Amino acid sequence: MSDTNEKTRQTVREGYADIAEGKSTKGCCGASAPKKLAGAIGYTNEELEILPDGANMGLSCGNPTAIAGLKEGQVVLDLGSGGGLDVFIAAKKVGAKGLSIGVDMTPEMLSKARAAISKFTEKTGLSNVEFRLGEIEHLPVADSSIDVIISNCVINLSPDKQQVWREITRVLKPGAKACVSDLALLQEIPEDIRKSASAYIGCVGGAILLDETKKMINAAGLTNVQISIKKDNMDNMVSCNKALYQSIRNLLPAGKKLSDYVVSADFTAFKKD
């Protein structure tokens, strides 16, 4: 692991630890308007109603469970699970015979998510959730053990995205799929934004071109890659956290919006049988 990669990882870990402890709202959209953002990017009231308090922290750029087609009895893995938003929603969809696992590298996020499990059980009667400490580049998950992988605005934060996609391939069962919502570039962003720590924590500085992501997915051995672009989601994220994105927008060329460069995209891909 390079020193640069580790510094990036530490910056992200510290930023999201502050968010978990309520010291900051500077994550992808941040905690300033989590319910408003969730509705704007595709979560239903039914999905949000089963959540324990605090699970929705406004750190999303899409709704990966909406594209995953989850079925009862499946084992689901969420990469970078944060406060547990998508883990809890997935757990409800896969039911008592299924399992919903979250992996996150930030202990403060894990503590927050684990503390919410009992409330989720009270609301739903389900005990099918677990959270594991780990990095998405080195998942604490057995080979070929997962039916569906989901992730929400997290892979862009990784300094080694190709390794993340290799790990996704490793842990998926043959024929299983990954359904990822993430930020991606339509065109290269100005270098000043790329270097900005707030841009990185805000899931902008780490985003890469759509074609680059597709190449990484294919290089990892996944097939049938499908990409759906949702440009409006970026505008909704900016609207929800003006304080965070104002500093980034100040670095843009005159007359440009952030969504001219960065969009939300849903990626679906399958492991070969």
Structural summary, described in words:
This protein has about 270 residues and is of the alpha/beta class. The chain has a single domain, classed as Rossmann fold (3-Layer(aba) Sandwich), CATH 3.40.50. Helices cover about 40% and strands about 20% of the residues. The protein has a 7-stranded mixed sheet with strand order 3-2-1-4-5-7-6, with helices on both faces. Strand 1, helix 5 (about 85-95) and strand 2 form a beta-alpha-beta unit. It is globular and about 55 Å long.
Summarize the structure.
The protein is an alpha/beta fold and 273 residues long. Helices cover 40% and strands 21% of the residues.
Averaged pLDDT, please?
88
Shape, per Cα inertia axes: globular
Continuous helix count: 13
The helix-strand sequence is: HHHHEHEHHEEHEHHHEHHE
Q: Give the low-confidence spans.
A: 26-31
Classify the oligomer.
single chain
Strand content: 15-25%
List the defining traits of the structure above.
21% strand, Rossmann fold, seven-stranded mixed β-sheet, 13 helices, 7 strands
SSE topology sketch:
Layout: H1 3-20, H2 34-40, H3 45-49, H4 64-68, E1 75-79, H5 85-94, E2 99-104, H6 107-115, H7 117-124, E3 129-133, E4 146-152, H8 161-171, E5 172-185, H9 191-194, H10 197-201, H11 210-219, E6 222-230, H12 231-240, H13 242-249, E7 262-271
Parallel strand pairs: 1-2, 1-4, 2-3, 4-5
Antiparallel strand pairs: 5-7, 6-7
Helix pairs in contact: 1-6, 2-12, 8-11, 12-13
